Amino acid sequence: MRIIHGTPYARTNYVIWAMKELGLDFEIKPVNPMTGETKSPEYLALNPNGLIPTLEEDGFLLWETTAINSYLAKKYGDGLLWSSDPQEEAQIMQWCVFGAIYVDHQAVNHILHKQALPEDMRDEKILALAKEELRPHLEVLNGHLSDKDYLVAGRFTIADLNLAAMLDYAVKSGYDFSGLGHVQRWLTDCLGRPVRVEMNKR
Ligand SMILES: N[C@@H](CCC(=O)N[C@@H](CS)C(=O)NCC(=O)O)C(=O)O
Fold first, then answer.
1. For a disulfide at 114, which of 3, 137, 152, 173, Cβ 3.0-4.6 Å?
2. Does residue 81 sit within a domain?
3. What is the rounded average pLDDT for all residues in the chain?
4. How many domains does the chain have?
């Protein structure tokens, strides 16, 4: 039994995308981050950080989207979203960590402070910082993609999935990708995958 605790409208969507690409069965147990449910004793017993998502697989618990998606890709997606070649595996991890450290927080802040939070909670300074901090990392990504279709191994892996899922928040909130043509082309490709298009319809 595989359960993902969270809501499809939050970062839980990264894990849902991976599970769908892998053709895995799962159930979503709704946990709403806006109502304090993430801080209930029941939820804190699953994830002491009080954050969604958490994966529960036959009693095995795992949190942090990057760790969850790496686990799922490695266990169920060798040759698909993962690679068992040690160097490719390390490069996949490199880009996953890059996304988790430099991209995720700022892409989420971009959508929150541009449009998702109630107006009186939006902060122009946080929005400006998100734009400024994303840029140099997107330039690194753009340089890497200048002669490649995908980040690692010449095919779509969990590294592409994680980073594209994070950057989808920036896309949806009108981040200015001008001068980042390779990132734009790669994002169009990743976010145009049938599974993601279907998810984004909801
Ligand atoms: N680094 C974590 C971030 C998780 C996170 O911040 N989740 C948000 C929703 S997208 C949350 O649970 N917020 C509730 C709260 O802050 O109380 C991951 O990738 O799993």
1. 173
2. no
3. 97
4. 2
- Asked if residue 10 has its Cβ within 6 Å of ligand 1, the reply is yes
The domain boundary, picked from 46, 76, 106, lies at 76
Is residue 116 included in any domain, yes or no?
Answer: yes
Q: Give the nearest ligand 1 atom to 52 CA.
A: 12
Neighbours of 160 (CB within 10 A): 25
Domain that holds residue 106: 86-197
Same domain for 94 and 48: no
For residue 108, which atom of ligand 1 is closest to its CA? 10
Closest ligand 1 atom number to CA of residue 51: 12
pLDDT score of 202: 77
Report how far residue 146's alpha carbon sits from residue 186's, in angstroms, rounded to the nearest whole number.
10
Long-range contacts of 74-81 (CB under 8 A, 24+ apart): 76/22, 76/24, 77/21, 77/22, 77/158, 80/21, 80/22, 81/18, 81/21, 81/22, 81/156, 81/157, 81/158, 81/161
Q: Is 50 in the pocket of ligand 1 (CB under 6 A)?
A: yes
pTM of the model: 0.98
CB of 88 closer than 6 angstroms to any ligand 1 atom = no
Q: For position 35, which CATH number holds? A: 3.40.30.10
Percent of the chain having pLDDT more than 70? Answer: 100
Q: What is the CATH number of the domain that holds 178?
A: 1.20.1050.10
Asked if residue 37 has its Cβ within 6 Å of ligand 1, the reply is no
78 Cα to the center of ligand 1, angstroms:
27
